[in-house]
Amino acid sequence: MALQMDGRLTRNEILEFMANAEVKEGRVTNQVYGEMNDRVRDTVISLIDREREGEQIDEALVKNVLDIYVEMDEDSMKYYVKDFEESMLKDTAIFYSKKALDWIASKSYEDYMLKVEECLKNEEARIQRYLRYKSKHKLLEVAEYELLSVHASKLEEKKQINLAANA
């Protein structure tokens, strides 16, 4: 399989992975899963980040790939959690940490809070469209922590400056 320049898989390569990753009795019957998991996971996470940046992505493809993780062990969802969700949550923290730093430096308190609200709504919508509901609490917690808790003192300072300016 040929990789794109940045190491991600193409859409056709992901579809090939899905076609070869037959799930029977909780086991992937093809070695392709073990060989391709990291690249498939990283590509899906990259697609999610691109969507967070406002790009349209193939949500059906993302959902179908995530369904494979679930189908391998529907009872505990251990493959979804271990092989996808943990990495996705780490990436979410990095993504929103960078966004928060940019926005805290460039936006007013009100505009920052509007961006936070928009991001949290988008994450909830993402969960409904293709992520698992089981991820909801963890995903929102990570996003809120990076966007609000980490910068609480700076946000309070911006809020007080804004209140003083409007007094």
UniProtKB/TrEMBL annotation:
InterPro entries: Cullin (IPR045093), Cullin_N (IPR001373), Cullin_repeat-like_dom_sf (IPR016159). SUPFAM superfamilies: Cullin repeat-like. Residues 31-159 form the Cullin N-terminal domain. Pfam families: Cullin. GO terms for molecular function: ubiquitin protein ligase binding. Transmembrane segments: none annotated. One of its GO terms (biological process) is ubiquitin-dependent protein catabolic process. Belongs to the cullin family. This is Cullin-1-like. The lineage of its organism: Eukaryota, Viridiplantae, Streptophyta, Embryophyta, Tracheophyta.
